[in-house]
Amino acid sequence: MASREQVQLCRRVELRSLPATALAVLLDEEKARWLALLHWDFGPSADLVLRYAAMQALEGYALVDGTEVVGYTYWVSEEHKGLVGDLYVRDAWRTPANENLLLEGALAQLRRSPWIRRVEAQLMHLASRGSQLAPSGLRPRAFCRHFMLAPTDGIEHRRTGDYVPELRYQQWSPRYLEDAAELIAHVYYGHVDGEINDQYHSAHGARRFLQNIVQYPGCGHFSPQCSWLAIDAAGRTQGLCLATMVSEQSGHIAQICLAPEYQGSGAGYEMLRRSMAALVAGGASEVSLTVTASNERAIRLYDRFGFRAVYQFDALVWEKLWP
Fold first, then answer.
1. Among 4, 85, 151, 248, whose CB has the most other CB atoms within 10 angstroms?
2. Which residues are CB-contacts of 323 (< 8 A; sequence separation ≥ 6)?
3. C-alpha–C-alpha distance, residues 288 and 106, integer Å
4. Residue range 117-125: average pLDDT?
5. DSSP strand E in the chain: where?
6. Quick count: other Cβ atoms within 10 Å of Cβ 225?
7. Three-state DSSP class for 58?
């Protein structure tokens, strides 16, 4: 364990000033933590970090104690907002002061871009919460979220959802991308999750959100054969449930939503049942998902499938970064 004196010696340096190999020990610890706590293989995401770091294409900071890299963060900018992609401090150095040192650097850099009006972050392994998070006095809005897990035993024997005559269920296809983006913008209008992720505010933003799930490993390896849509008689997408694999044994529900007029009809239950059954067929022995703690209606549905909260974290939003 690092002593108090060691922790105080940490300094912040630009990621680009370090060789990518300097991050290896830190990322190995982060991978072990993801796997132990969340049953999630963080390896593909860690490989992506190393690849971009090797190209010196990653904007971020590292926390260094002597010659040892003990923490890091990176961010990306997209249109009017910044997104803190990850922040991790190794166990022996994980303190609010060190986490805030990295956050403060990220926010300071993002504030240098006058078009950035908002910063979002969902940092699964951030230990600091509540009043501990105020780098440079910039306190975020914090939304408690649950990471939930459910065993898949017996999922294949679950009853089907209530029959909705005008809906049919279809596996994911890229041709539904535009319809799915329109659906997300419609479903999350005025919803708390739209306050957390402003990509939900428009079909344009929702399209980028969907493309990130389908194309990149941040939410696991996308499984089109385990992802379902509810289509009405006119061919419009009224619901979707997108699934990924996050390890050899663990599936993940990356997104589930249903048009308001069909909520309570049994269609949400049926999409989730189909996705979970397909994940089991693909080798999953458990399924995870994340949900905002105040979304009681969704949590009631997940309870029916045996999902239980095993971990809590905050979704953070900084707005009005300038006086």
1. 85
2. none
3. 30
4. 95
5. 11-14, 60-65, 68-78, 81-89, 118-122, 141-151, 168-171, 221-222, 228-231, 237-245, 250-258, 286-292, 308-319
6. 14
7. coil
Structure tokens at 294: 């105040």
Instruction: Tell me the CATH class for 4-139.
Output: alpha beta
Band of pLDDT at residue 212, cut at 50, 70 and 90: very high
CA neighbor of 230 nearest in space, from 193, 287, 273, 289? 273
Residue 170 clears pLDDT 60, i.e. is over it: yes
Q: Which CATH number applies to 148-312?
A: 3.40.630.30
The boundaries of every CATH 3.40.630.30 domain in the chain are 4-139, 148-312
The predicted structure's pLDDT at residue 134:
72
Q: What is the pTM of this model?
A: 0.93
Pairing label, strands 228-231, 221-222: unpaired
Question: For residue 156, which amino acid is it?
Answer: E
Closest by Cα among 267, 201, 181, 280 to 228:
267
- Euclidean distance between CA atoms 8 and 123, whole angstroms: 23
Question: Within 13 Å of residue 215, how many CA atoms lie on the same side as its CB?
Answer: 8
* DSSP for residue 137: G
End-to-end CA distance of the chain: 41
Cβ count near 215 (within 10 Å)? 9
